[in-house]
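Reader question, answered in our methods column.
A reader sent in the components of a multi-part assembly and asked whether the whole thing could be modeled at once rather than chain by chain. We filled in our standard form and ran it. Here is what they sent:
COMPLEX SIZE: two components
ENTRIES:
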Amino acid sequence: MAEWTSKRGPRTFYKSRGARPTGVLTSSRKFIPVQAMIPEFVVPSLEGFNLKPYVSYKTPAGTEQPMTPEMLFNQVVAPQIERDIEEGVFNEENLEKYGLEKTQEGKLFKLHPKNFAR
Amino acid sequence: MAAKAAFPHDYRYGTSRPWTIAAQRLNPPGKKRRKVFVEPIANEDWHVLRGDTVEILSGKDKGKQGKVAQVFRRRNWVILEGLNTHYRYIGRSGDYRGTYIASEAPLLLKDVTLIDPTDRKPTDIEWRYTEEGERVRVSVRTGRIIPKPVYQRKDGIIPQQWKDGPKDTSPEDTLQTTYTPSLKTLEEEVMEKMNIQEDRRPRKSYWY
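And here is the structure of the entire assembly that came back:
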C-alpha cells in the first residue's frame, strides 16, 4: 500500500482530502458561508468554439516550437524597443512602457513567487 | 512526471515486462544469478526493426521466414510471429488444465538475417547513405535498399482510415494557431476580457 489517506486508520482518524473551507465557524458552532470563498465558474459563451475533448488520429505532428522567454521577448518587446531607438525616444529608465516590471509588489498575479495555480 | 525506472546492474531482462508477476519471479530482490553476457551492439548498428521480415539461420525453425513482433535490445533478442514456438498451458485454475497455446521463444540477433525484398533470399546488411543523405539499410550481396517497415500501432488504428467521432476535434481546427504572444498571464487576459475588476489583494501569509 502506498498512500496514507483518510480511508485507512481507525474510525477516530481524521484526515482531510484537501477541500478548502467555504465560510466561517462561529463560537456558537454555527457555520456562516462566505460567498467570496465559494468558487464560482465564470464561463464565456461557447459560440463558434470548435475544439472538442479529443484530437483526431489523422492530425499530423505540429511544427510550432514551444514558446521560450527569448522568443516571447523577440516577438513582443523587441520591435517596440527597435522602433523607439530609431525615433530616438528610447529611455533606459522608462522600461515599464514595454511591459517590463520593476517589482512584483502590488500585482494580483505575481510571476515570482508564483501565486496562481496553473 | 513519472520517475525513470531504475534497475540493478545485474538485472536479468526476460520476455515479460518488468512490472509483471513473471518478471518479479525472475528477479526477486535478494537473488544472485550467473550473469548473462550480451554482445554490445551500438544503436546505429542495430538493423532489425519491428515489422521486418527475417529468416532464421539456426534452431528448430531453421530456414523459415517470419515477421518480427518484438525486439529486446537489452539481450539482443528478436521474437518472430508464430516461429520458434514451444507449447504450454495458459490460464489453468483448479482442475482445468488451461488452454494449450504456442508461445514463441526469443532468437538471438546473430541467428536471424534480413531478407532482400526482391529475390526473398537472406542477405547481410550494411548501413549506408543515399545520395540525398538518408541513412538506409543496403544488402551487401545485391546492393538493393531495404525499406523501413511501416509502423503499425499496437491498438490496430490506421490514422488515415480513422473516422472522427462526435468528440474528436478535426485536424484543421487542431492545427489552427490562434495564439498571439503577449506579456499578460492567461488570468490577466481573461479578467480584462470579462471586465472583472479586482482591487483587493490577498493578505500576507507564511508557510515553512
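What stands out: Chain B has a mean pLDDT of 91. The first helix of chain B runs from residue 21 to 26.
Send us your own complexes using the same form.
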